[in-house]
């Protein structure tokens, strides 16, 4: 088990198996020392824990947790390409999409769910640039979706 996965385990988290794509794409691609993930939903054991808009059907605090789960699914996609998460030298960029009720403006707080998890898992290498984007709807009516770009050696 990698040191990254041990740190996640200490937080009560685990990298799941790679989520099966829901359309015509692959979970992650490596190019030029970077791994780019497709958008990952917060599947837990193959199912979305909640659906709907954050700030309406889905409470903000649940969405924060779901962002972390989506991030774990992105880590699974990365691991499937490079084999060992300890090879990650830097989390470069995180994009978090939040299916938001019209008056919901706390997308950055939702995005903190994945950002904080990555910081704890990777230490200084987990600091990253980020976009937190409010959207009208996401695939399968998911409340959040996350994609990552990481550098590795």
UniProtKB/TrEMBL annotation:
Coiled-coil region? none
Pfam families per the UniProt record, alphabetical: YjgF_endoribonc (PF14588)
Query: What range(s) does the Endoribonuclease L-PSP/chorismate mutase-like domain occupy?
Result: 5-148
Q: What is this protein called?
A: Enamine deaminase RidA (YjgF/YER057c/UK114 family)
Q: Which organism was this protein described from?
A: Pseudoclavibacter helvolus
> Lineage, please?
Bacteria, Bacillati, Actinomycetota, Actinomycetes, Micrococcales
């Amino acid at each position: 088990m990698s040191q990254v996965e041990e740190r996640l385990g200490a937080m009560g988290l685990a990298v799941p198996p790679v989520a099966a794509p829901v359309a015509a794409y692959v979970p992650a691609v490596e190019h030029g020392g970077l791994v780019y993930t497709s958008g990952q939903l917060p599947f837990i054991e193959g199912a979305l824990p909640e659906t709907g808009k954050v700030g309406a059907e889905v409470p903000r605090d649940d969405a924060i947790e779901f962002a972390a789960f989506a991030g774990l699914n992105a880590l699974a996609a990365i691991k499937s390409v490079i084999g060992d998460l300890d090879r990650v030298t830097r989390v470069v960029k995180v994009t978090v999409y939040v299916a938001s009720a019209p008056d919901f403006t706390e997308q950055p707080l939702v995005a903190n769910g994945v950002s904080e998890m990555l910081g704890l898992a990777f230490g200084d290498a987990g600091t990253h640039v980020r976009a937190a984007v409010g959207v009208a709807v996401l695939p399968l009516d998911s409340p959040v979706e996350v994609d990552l770009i990481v550098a590795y050696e």
